[in-house]
Prior knowledge:
Elements: H1 2-5, E1 14-24, H2 27-38, E2 47-50, E3 53-59, E4 72-78, H3 81-90, E5 94-95, E6 100-102, E7 105-111, E8 117-123
Parallel strand pairs: 1-3, 4-8
Antiparallel strand pairs: 1-4, 2-3, 5-7, 6-7, 7-8
Amino acid sequence: MANGGDPNNGRGRITGIGGVFFRARKREDLAQWYHDVLGLPTTDAATAQVGETVWAAFDFRTTYFGPAHQDYMVNYRVDDLDAAIFRVREAGASVSHDIQQDEYGRFAWAVDPEGQRFELWEPAAGIDSLNPAGDPNPEIA
C-alpha cells in the first residue's frame, strides 16, 4: 500500500498555524500593550492578524478552549478535517464529536496526550487568511 499503509493517502496533515488564542485578565489593555510596544496590528476586539495567523486575547473566564488551567489554545490548519480527526482518534486522543461549520470552514477540537485542547480547522474553499475561530470569538466580539 502506498504511503506506508496510510489509509488517508497522506491527508489530514497540519498545513499551518491558523491562530494562537490565550486567556487575558485585561485583554483590551494587553492588546494595546502589544500594539504600542511591538506594533501588533490589534483591533478593538483584542485580536490581530499577522499574515495568515490570528492572535486573539480571550476573556480570562472563557470556556472556549477547555479547562481553566489551560491558558492558551492553538488552531491548526489542516488539509482534510475528516482525515485529521481519524489520525487523532487512531492515536488514542480524545476528539469532540461536535464539528462546526461556518463561512470560514470546518472546525473540530481534540486533546493532546498532555491534556491540552487544540483546534483543527479545514478552511473553506477560497479562504486564505481570515479569522479561523470556528465560533467568531463570542467573548471578543
